[in-house]
């Protein structure tokens, strides 16, 4: 029995009896019952009604590789070398890093319906409800030195925002790699983030894996959100298709990556500053065990954030720096 087929049968909103499920999938009702327990263990909500059967509620739209590719324009299909859609992986970033070790990986994209060891920034775990979000990684090989890739994660944030705008959702960005939604009351909520891992020679070539976690229809559990609540795109557009969002993200990201090696961060700098959610706001800058209060300003040509502490202007690089907005 294919686990994906069971989810498809149960995820269309219709009730199906254990007997019908067994007949459709060619297994016993006992086997069906065991798989239903596994589904519940994955965080899927099952509704059971005596005399009618089972269904997944709310319905789940599983990712479909052929549907995603079918939604890509010709230029984006040309840029995409290979697309993987996996039911479960430990980490999509680890998957593509391994692909690079095998001589592949460039222009490859890997989606996973669930990650068992998904990583956020600074080693935090990222757990996504089945069917509720998008967790994926994109691999790219640059001929340029690693130093030329400064600001890449910020450029990724910009093109994600531009891609989501085509789906009727406007988002904002928080330095260095957070994707935010501004709710109607002005409250900021975290939609997701970007994690970039790089390997190769400092002088080039460099192999980069860009990991992205995005809450589409429900919010995942994320350890530590810098004081922000979790949110999802469905708060703004409940009719979003995960496959459509996946396709538009691939289209925009691969187009940016084709340019980034030659042009760097500068073409996306002004747009990032326009989308900067904390511009002009008081923030708590945390550096390891210490920190200080400052006012967030803008980012420079290398993607570093400028802040004002009293009369002094400081420049923050990535790494162990964390920003927390003050009320």
Automatic annotation (TrEMBL):
Single biological process term from Gene Ontology: regulation of DNA-templated transcription
Enzyme class: ligase
Residues annotated as domain BPL/LPL catalytic: 76-261
Keywords, ordered alphabetically: ATP-binding, Biotin, DNA-binding, Ligase, Nucleotide-binding, Repressor, Transcription, Transcription regulation
Recorded name of the encoding gene: birA
Chain sites annotated for binding biotin: 91-93, 115, 119-121
Record organism: Halotalea alkalilenta
EC number of this enzyme: 6.3.4.15
Catalysed conversion reaction: biotin + L-lysyl-[protein] + ATP = N(6)-biotinyl-L-lysyl-[protein] + AMP + diphosphate + H(+)
Cellular-component GO terms for this entry: cytoplasm
Family of the protein in this entry: Belongs to the biotin--protein ligase family.
Protein name, entry field: Bifunctional ligase/repressor BirA
A Pfam family assignment: BPL_C
UniProt-listed InterPro entries: aa-tRNA-synth_II/BPL/LPL, Bifunct_BirA, Biotin_CoA_COase_ligase, BPL_C, BPL_LPL_catalytic, HTH_11, Transcriptional_repressor_C, WH-like_DNA-bd_sf
Cross-referenced CDD domains: BPL
DNA-binding region extent: 18-37
């Amino acid at each position: 029995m294919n686990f994906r087929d069971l989810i498809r049968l149960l995820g269309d909103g219709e009730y199906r009896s254990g007997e019908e499920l067994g007949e459709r999938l060619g297994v016993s009702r006992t086997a069906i019952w065991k798989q239903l327990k596994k589904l519940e263990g994955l965080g899927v909500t099952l509704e059971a009604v005596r005399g009618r059967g089972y269904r997944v509620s709310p319905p789940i739209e599983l990712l479909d590789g052929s549907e995603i590719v079918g939604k890509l324009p010709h230029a984006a299909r040309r840029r995409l070398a290979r697309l993987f859609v996996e039911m479960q992986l430990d980490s999509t970033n680890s998957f593509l890093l391994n692909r690079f070790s095998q001589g592949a990986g460039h222009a490859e994209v890997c989606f996973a319906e669930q990650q068992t060891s998904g990583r956020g920034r600074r080693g935090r775990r990222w757990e996504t409800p089945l069917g509720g979000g998008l967790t994926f990684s994109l691999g790219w090989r640059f001929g340029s030195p690693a130093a030329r890739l400064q600001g890449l994660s910020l450029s990724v944030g910009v093109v994600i925002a531009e891609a989501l705008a085509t789906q009727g959702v406007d988002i904002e960005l928080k330095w260095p790699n957070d994707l935010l939604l501004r709710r109607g009351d002005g409250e900021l909520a975290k939609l997701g983030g970007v994690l970039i891992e790089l390997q190769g020679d400092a002088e080039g070539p460099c192999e980069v894996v860009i990991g992205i976690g995005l809450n589409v229809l429900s919010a995942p559990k994320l350890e530590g959100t810098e004081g922000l609540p979790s949110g999802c795109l469905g708060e703004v557009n409940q009719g979003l298709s995960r496959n459509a969002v996946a396709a538009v993200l691939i289209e925009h990201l691969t187009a940016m990556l084709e340019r980034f090696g030659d042009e760097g961060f500068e073409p996306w700098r002004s747009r990032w500053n326009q989308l900067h959610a904390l511009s002009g706001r008081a923030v708590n800058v945390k550096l390891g065990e210490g920190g200080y209060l400052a006012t967030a300003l803008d980012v420079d040509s290398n993607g570093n954030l400028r802040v004002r502490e009293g009369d002094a202007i400081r420049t923050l690089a990535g790494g162990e720096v964390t920003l927390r907005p003050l009320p």
